[in-house]
User: Which sequence fits this backbone?
C-alpha cells in the first residue's frame, strides 16, 4: 500500500530498561483502515511497544509517527492534540471507578467538546448500544463483570469516533463467548466505520480472526510480519511454536541464565560475595 | 572507627539526604504543575472542575466535622485539666480561659486538626489515587488528553485548603468550649466570665497565625498524599506503602513547618 499515507509509522524504535534491551529496532507501518495484530509471549516487549506508540514511554532511539507527527518529540500540547484523535482499550478496561458506566463513556466528550448535555447523553447511549450494554448506563464499574468492563472501555474508546484504536490484550481473561463478542466488535469497527486498529495480544485464535496483518514480536524484534495465511502454516519454527502453543521448541520456557547444577550446589554464592558490598 | 566505616556512614547519610531532596523536588514540581493548571483553569477552558471540587470538599472536609469536633473538645478539656493545678498554685485559676484559648487558637487547633485530617483526608487521597494508578485509570486519563493534575489534583488541593481552614475555625471554637466545660463543671468557674476572658485574651493575631498555619498544613497534606498516590508502583502492596508513607511524611512535614512558622511569628510578628 505505498500510495496511501500511513496512519502510524514506527521507525527504528529501541527501548532499554535497566540495561536490558526490550525493543530492538522496531519498524512497522500501518495503513488507514487496516487491522494489525502484534502477537508475542509475555515479556516479548509488546506492551512496551504499545506504550511507546501512545506516548507513555519515550523510546531510547527511533521515532513513532501518527498522522506524520512525531509522538516521541511532540510538545505536551501537540501530544494532547494527537491523543484526542485515537482511542485505547486498556487490558483491564481502566474504567474510572468513581464514575458510572455512562459517565465513563461521556467523559471524553465532556472534556474535549462543547456538545450539549442532551447530545452527549445520546452519544453515550449509541456507543453503549454498539457494545450491547445500553441498559447498564447507571451502574458503577464495580457492579459489572470483567468482560462487560472491557466492552464499556471500548465504548469509551470510540466515544469521539477516533481514526485509530489501540487494544491492549482485548480478550485476556475473557470466556470464549465474550472473546468472540470483542473480536466481532473490532471487525465491525473496521468494516462499518473504517477504523484502523492496532491490537496487542497473545490470543492466537482471536488474532487470526481479526487481523489483516500479523506481526510476531520475539525478544524485542519482529521475527515475522504478514497476512494471517502466513501464520496458519508458519515456516519459522519459533512462530510455529507460538501459533500452535507447543511447550517444546526453540522458544525456551526457562529464562534463567545461571547454571542449574551450580545454583543448586551453591557454587555461585561462593563467588558472588567478592564483589558484593556485604562483609 | 575506621575511615572506610566513616565514609560508608557519610555515604548512607548523603544518599538519604539526596533522596529526600529529590522527593522535595518532586513535590515542588507537582506544586508548580498544580498552580499552572489552577491559573489556566481560572482564565481559559478547560475550567477548574467545580463539581468535583465540591464533591471533594464534602468527602474530605464536611465528613470530618464530627471527628474534628470530638478530638478538639477533648484537647480543650485536657488543657484545662493539666493547667489548672499549676495555675491554682499561683492563685491564677481564673486565667484558665486565657491559657486554653491562646494554646488552642495559636497551636493546638490548627495542629491537631491537621494531624487528624492527614489520617482522614490524606490517607484517603493517597489510597484513591494509588488505586487509580494500579488500575491504569491515570494512564487512561493521560492518554485521552485529560491531565491528571488538572482533573484530580487541583480539585483536591482547593477542597483541602478551604475545608482545612474552615475546620480549624471550628476546632478553635470547640477547643475553647472544651476548656470551658472543665472550667464550669470541675473548677466551678463562671461560664460567662470564662467567655469574657477568652474574648479579651485573644488578639486577632492569634487567630490569623493559626489560620495561616492551617492553610500551610492543608497544602502539605494534599500535596504529599497526591504525590505519593500518583507515584505508586507495584500493585496493591504499593498502594498500602504509599498510604502509610504519605501519612508519616505529612505529619513530619506539618510539625517541621509548624516549628518554622512559629519561630517566624515569634520574631517577626
Assistant:
Amino acid at each position: 500500500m505505498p500510495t496511501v499515507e500511513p496512519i502510524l509509522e514506527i521507525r527504528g524504535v529501541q527501548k532499554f530498561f535497566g540495561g536490558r534491551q526490550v525493543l530492538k529496532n522496531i519498524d512497522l507501518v500501518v495503513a488507514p483502515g487496516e487491522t494489525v495484530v502484534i502477537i508475542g509471549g509475555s515479556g516479548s516487549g509488546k506492551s512496551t511497544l504499545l506504550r511507546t506508540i501512545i506516548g507513555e514511554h519515550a523510546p531510547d532511539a527511533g521515532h513513532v509517527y501518527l498522522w506524520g507527527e512525531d509522538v516521541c518529540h511532540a510538545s505536551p500540547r501537540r501530544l494532547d492534540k494527537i491523543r484526542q484523535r485515537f482511542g485505547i482499550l486498556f487490558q483491564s478496561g481502566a474504567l474510572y471507578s468513581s464514575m458510572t458506566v455512562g459517565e465513563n463513556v461521556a467523559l471524553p466528550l465532556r472534556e474535549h467538546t462543547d456538545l450539549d448535555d442532551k447530545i452527549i447523553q445520546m452519544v453515550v447511549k449509541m456507543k453503549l448500544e454498539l457494545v450491547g450494554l445500553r441498559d447498564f448506563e447507571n451502574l458503577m464499574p464495580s457492579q459489572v463483570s470483567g468482560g462487560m468492563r472491557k466492552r464499556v472501555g471500548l465504548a469509551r474508546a470510540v466515544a469521539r469516533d477516533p481514526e485509530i484504536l489501540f487494544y491492549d490484550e482485548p480478550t485476556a481473561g475473557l470466556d470464549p463467548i465474550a472473546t468472540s463478542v470483542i473480536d466481532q466488535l473490532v471487525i465491525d469497527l473496521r468494516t462499518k466505520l473504517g477504523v484502523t486498529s492496532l491490537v496487542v495480544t497473545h490470543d492466537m485464535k482471536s488474532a487470526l480472526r481479526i487481523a489483516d496483518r500479523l506481526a510476531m514480536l520475539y525478544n524485542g524484534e519482529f521475527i515475522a510480519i504478514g497476512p494471517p495465511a502466513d501464520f496458519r502454516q508458519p515456516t519459522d519454527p519459533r512462530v510455529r511454536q507460538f501459533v500452535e502453543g507447543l511447550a517444546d521448541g526453540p522458544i525456551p520456557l526457562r529464562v534463567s541464565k545461571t547454571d542449574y547444577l551450580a545454583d543448586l550446589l551453591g557454587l555461585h554464592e561462593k563467588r558472588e560475595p567478592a564483589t558484593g558490598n556485604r562483609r | 572507627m575506621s575511615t572506610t566505616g566513616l565514609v560508608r556512614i557519610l555515604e548512607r547519610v548523603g544518599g538519604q539526604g539526596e533522596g529526600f531532596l529529590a522527593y522535595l523536588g518532586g513535590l515542588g514540581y507537582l506544586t508548580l504543575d498544580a498552580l499552572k493548571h489552577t491559573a489556566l483553569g481560572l482564565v481559559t477552558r478547560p475550567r477548574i472542575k467545580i463539581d468535583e471540587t465540591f464533591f471533594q470538599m464534602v468527602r474530605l472536609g464536611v465528613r470530618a466535622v464530627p471527628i474534628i469536633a470530638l478530638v478538639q473538645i477533648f484537647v480543650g478539656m485536657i488543657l484545662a485539666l493539666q493547667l489548672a493545678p499549676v495555675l491554682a498554685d499561683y492563685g491564677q485559676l481564673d486565667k484558665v480561659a486565657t491559657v486554653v484559648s491562646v494554646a488552642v487558637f495559636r497551636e493546638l487547633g490548627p495542629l491537631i486538626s491537621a494531624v487528624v485530617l492527614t489520617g482522614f483526608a490524606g490517607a484517603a487521597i493517597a489510597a484513591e489515587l494509588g488505586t487509580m494508578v494500579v488500575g491504569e485509570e491515570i494512564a487512561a486519563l493521560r492518554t485521552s488528553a485529560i491531565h491528571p493534575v488538572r482533573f484530580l489534583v487541583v480539585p483536591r488541593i482547593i477542597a483541602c485548603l478551604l475545608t482545612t481552614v474552615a475546620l480549624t475555625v471550628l476546632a478553635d471554637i470547640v477547643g475553647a468550649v472544651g476548656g470551658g466545660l472543665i472550667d464550669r463543671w470541675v473548677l466551678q468557674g463562671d461560664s460567662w466570665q470564662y467567655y469574657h476572658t477568652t474574648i479579651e485574651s485573644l488578639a486577632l493575631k492569634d487567630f490569623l497565625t493559626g489560620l495561616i498555619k492551617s492553610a500551610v498544613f492543608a497544602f502539605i497534606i494534599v500535596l504529599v498524599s497526591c504525590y505519593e498516590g500518583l507515584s505508586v508502583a507495584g500493585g496493591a502492596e504499593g498502594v498500602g506503602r504509599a498510604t502509610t508513607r504519605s501519612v508519616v511524611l505529612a505529619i513530619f512535614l506539618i510539625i517541621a513547618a509548624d516549628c518554622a512558622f512559629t519561630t517566624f511569628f515569634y520574631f517577626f510578628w
About this structure: The domain at 1-31+43-85+206-279 of chain A is CATH 3.40.50.300 (Rossmann fold). The two ends of chain A are 63 Å apart (CA to CA). The mean pLDDT of chain A is 86.
